[in-house]
Amino acid sequence: MKRCIVFFVAIILSAGTVFADSVDVEYMDRECVVGESLFFNVKINIDSDKSGDKQIDVSKVKLNNIPLKYEVRETSTSSFTVVINGRTVNKSSGVVKNYIFEIPTGKIGELTIPPFEIKVGNKTYTSEQLRFNVLPKPRSSDLLFKTLLKNPHNVYYPTQVIEIENKIYFRNFPGSPSIQNIHLPILQHRGFSLIPEKNANWEAVINEQRFNVNPKQGTDVINGKKYNFFAFNLKFRLMESGRFSFDNYIRIVVETGKVTRQSGFFGTQLVKEQKVLYADSDPFKMVVRDLPNQNVPPSFNGAIGDFKIKVIPSCDTDVKVGDPITLLIEISGRGTWEFVKSPPIHKIPEITDYFKVSQDPVLGEVSEDNSSKTFNVRMRVKSKTVDKIPPIPFTFFNLVQEKYVTIYSDPVSILVFDTQSNVSVMDYSLREKEEKGQKIAKEERKISEQSSPDKEAFKPRLPELIQISDNVSGPILYEDHSAHYHRIIYALMPFVVVAMLFLVNMYKNRNVSSKELARVKSRKAYKHFLTNASSLEKRSPDSPVFYRDLGRNILTFMEERYGVSTAELNGDFFNQLIDMQTITREGAEALTKICEEVDYRRYSPAKFDQEVAKTLLKKTKEVLKGCQIS
Amino acid sequence: MPNKLNLLIVLMFCFLSLRAETVLADKNANDNGDHDNRDQALIYYHQGISAETVGLREEVFEKALETYLSIFNRMKRDGKMNGFLCYNIGNCYFNLKQIGEAIFYYKMGLKLLPGDENIIDNLKTALAKREDAVDVKSGGVKEVLLFFHYKISPAVRINILIGFSIASALLLTALIYRKRTSILYMAGILCACVCCLFISLCVEYYLPRHIGVTVHSAKVRKDAGEGFAMITPKPLGEGSGIRVLSFNNGWYKVKLNDGRKGFVRQNHLRLVL
Questions:
Q1: CB-CB: which of B28, B122, B169 is closest to A468?
Q2: If you average pLDDT over every residue of chain A, what do you get?
Q3: DSSP code for A139
Q4: Using an 8 Å Cβ cutoff, are A365 and A373 in contact?
Q5: What is the mean pLDDT of chain B?
Q6: Nearest to A484 among B10, B39, B158 (CB)
């Protein structure tokens, strides 16, 4: 009996210990490669009866003073189901809460989580220090990963569609490598909206999730090495502006080529050894700009793309004053329809002056083929003088031109009846009366066109163009006005020709140089003598220096003609000249005589005779003339 | 014999000149492909003037502009420019109320055709429409003295240079055979003109004076970056003329009239030629 009591007490105590609160910390991973996350689990057992009251605080689980992210999974330790009055009731005797903490890794080496406290109700539990190992990524030059933007532009704006090509290059691996995961953080960013591909037939694991893509395979040569490649494209629509940078990498499993023995259920098996490899792409960087905030037209409503506007009245355009007109505004073209809103008609004075327009937002409807969006706008005519719905503007940002463009719809003609005349005329039961009413209305319209000054005022005011000179056309537009600097060569060509002519002239004169030179010299010398002699004649005839100057002039002639100095002039020199046939013997004798006479008269005590002097000068001229080369 | 050689040289020169002109004429003949486009652009332009709605007006002016710009770009690609085409483009922009672009194209047209009255008139009208705009100070006495450098387009200067050089060559040839003082003086004057024009063209080619036109309202900043402070109290209005010193990394370095230097974003400024 005593034993039985002890046994039951032991069972009760053990049950109590089972359902008492407890906190366990379990490693889920002890090591991982850098860039991936480590996980550990904090398991908290709570008695089910008290679980509602107890508050659990895990905020002190920190790494570098930053609380770690966690996920809670709850399980009951023992449960049973009871059906009471036809209703199923679950009962559990204990609850286990698993707090799974994620540790992002950025550095290689040992990672330590210091001891942390966890509060469960009033109790506080303290854990031990946790140690993890962060390993470097195993890489290989035979595995490459590239993420490239196709058709890159300088500037991107929100709503533009971009296409990213992801290429995995591999070589020299036995068997085909198996892609475990492609890490593309762009997919998780809200600024990039993935456009799913149609007819995608291959499932890729991207960011640990499965996506259907259209793969391409082939071979390519990089740095002289031939690689097999596997590629797929992803299309995104840019949703917000900013600077973006993404680090992409892949994780693949390849065979090493070795075979190992492994014992299994069916005995020892030969298993191919495998290893995990990583490859990083260059950081994928992109800048998406905000739309320009300068010169934003007031009618801009956020549309981006290239559009056209068309306004169709969806009801009869012959209306009374105060009757509603429904306009179907169709915006067609290319762009993101989420951004296309109804033109702000209630803000256009040309419309609001003559129409009452609702200020409620108008919801549009996108066509099935995604080529247009339509808006139904209701407005009421205020005045009978209105005959047109003026052009409705629609502004959008044109991505090609990179500017705001405003387009206008065509005006819509309407016919407005006066309220009283309409009441008296319109009778829809009778066709004849209706026709009559229309005729009356048309007549009224004609009258109003002639008489009403308001109507003229209503016409959409087309701003007048400033008068400038008209455009030019015709052959003058074919002319080339740009400066062709190479044509300067044509300006140098005439000078080349002149230089050539100069050289030719020199060449022509090369053989006659000595003889011709002597002839020119003799002429020049005689000419010089004549000039000097004429000045001698003009002087006073009784000048005592006449003969002296005459003698000097003769000497100058001799120097210039024969190239000899005064000291060398003697009989021997004349003999040499006679031998060289430069002067005749008679000429030499005459010249000698002249020189002697001049010398004699210069020092003669006789009175100066003008006639004698003139005769001597004349005679000298004749003799020197004879000394010239003909 | 020497006389025959002279004749041969002159004939060779004449042949080369004629050959050069033939090549140029052939190039011009190739332009006739654009004939239809130009006529179509003019039709669009006139439709824009007589349009009855704002939408239609802008649409046809845009079409005319697009056509003219496509021709302009094609010509530019072939190394050609036409002042009248720039003038037409300027007119289209003016009617589309894009004054900055209009002034830019008028200035470009004026650079190619310096004396054209239509361009001068329309440019004046466009300049009057600007707000908060500045212009580059004119050269003053320097511009008057070196009128041939500032007032004559480079293309015309090249033609004058060729004409002067032919005339001076003829005079020099005459001087070789008949040494007359009068010929010497005339040849000297012509050679001096040729030298001036040659130097002017060399300066134009190797040390061009870059003038930019702001096609949008442009902020002049202390350094190349949006974060730097403005050096002018107000942004320069569109259509402002400003001297450009250099270009680097999407920013133009500019010089203001008071000598200060600043930076303007590339998309706000366009260089004339």
A1: B122
A2: 79
A3: B
A4: yes
A5: 83
A6: B158
CB contact under 8 A, B81 and A491: no
* Closest residue on chain A to B1 (Cα): A508
- The beta-carbon neighbor of A490 closest among B17, B38, B172 is B17
For the domain with range A143-288, which CATH number is right: 3.10.310, 1.20.900, 3.30.2320, 2.60.40? 2.60.40
Residue A151 has which token pair? 């058709």
Task: Please list every residue in chain A whose beta carbon sits closer than 8 Å to the beta carbon of residue B165.
Answer: 491-495
Find the mean pLDDT for residues A269-289.
85
d(C-alpha A579, C-alpha A361), whole Å: 127
What tens digit of pLDDT does each residue of B221-264 get?
988 888 888 888 888 888 888 889 988 888 999 988 888 899 99
CATH superfamily of A19-133: Immunoglobulins (2.60.40.10)
Give the model confidence (pLDDT) of A440-450 as tens digits: 555 544 544 44
Pair A437, A426: CB distance under 8 Å: yes
Question: Looking at the predicted structure, is the pLDDT value of residue A617 above 80?
Answer: yes
Most B CBs within 10 A among A350, A405, A407, A480, hence the mutation to make, goes to: A480
CATH class of A303-416: mainly beta
pLDDT-based confidence at B21, cuts 50/70/90?
Answer: low
* Each residue's pLDDT tens digit, A425-464: 333 333 444 455 555 555 544 544 444 444 343 444 566 7
- Provide the domain count of chain B: 3
Q: Say if B22 falls within a structural domain.
A: no
Options 3.40.50, 1.20.120, 2.40.240, 1.20.1380; CATH for A513-626 is 1.20.120
Tell whether the model's pLDDT for residue B195 goes beyond 90. Answer: yes
Whole-number Å distance between alpha carbons of A238 and A224: 36
Record: contact A497-B31, CB cut-off 8 A = no
Cβ contacts of residue A152 below 8 Å, gap of 6+?
A: none
**Which of A236, A256, A255 shows the shortest CA–CA distance to A246?**
A236
**Nearest of B62, B92, B253 to residue A401 by alpha carbon:** B62
Could you tell me what percent of chain B has a pLDDT over 90? 16
List chain A domain ranges: 19-133, 143-288, 303-416, 513-626
Q: Which residues lie below 8 Å from residue B11, measured CB to CB, with a gap of 6+?
A: none
Cα-based torsion angle of the residue sequence A258, A259, A260, A266 in order, rounded to the nearest 10 degrees: 160
User: What pLDDT is stored for residue B139 in this prediction?
Assistant: 66
Give the per-residue pLDDT at A422. Answer: 40
Highest mean pLDDT among A552-561, B10-19, B25-34: A552-561
Q: How many CB atoms are located within 10 Å of the residue A621 CB?
A: 14
- Chain A hits for B28, CB-CB cut-off 8 Å, are 478-480
In angstroms, rounded to a whole number, what is the distance separating the alpha carbons of residues A229 and A177?
Answer: 11
Asked whether residue A90 carries a pLDDT value surpassing 70, the answer given is: no
pLDDT band at B168 (very low <50, low <70, confident <90, very high): very high
Considering CB atoms only, which of A470, A493, A502 is closest to B176? A502
Give pLDDT, residue A31.
86
Q: Determine the structural domain holding residue B175 and report its residue range.
A: 142-206
What CATH number has the domain bearing residue B81? 1.25.40.10
A480: which chain B residues are within 8 Å (Cβ-Cβ)?
27-28, 31, 75, 80-82, 155
Share of chain A above pLDDT 70, in %: 83
| CATH label of the domain that carries residue B214 | 2.30.30.40
B162 interaction partners in chain A (CB closer than 8 Å): 487, 490-491
Q: Which residues of B touch A482 (CB under 8 A)?
A: 79-81, 112, 155
Cβ within 8 Å, pair B28-A480: yes
Cα-trace Rg, chain B: 24
pLDDT, tens only, A234-243: 888 888 888 8
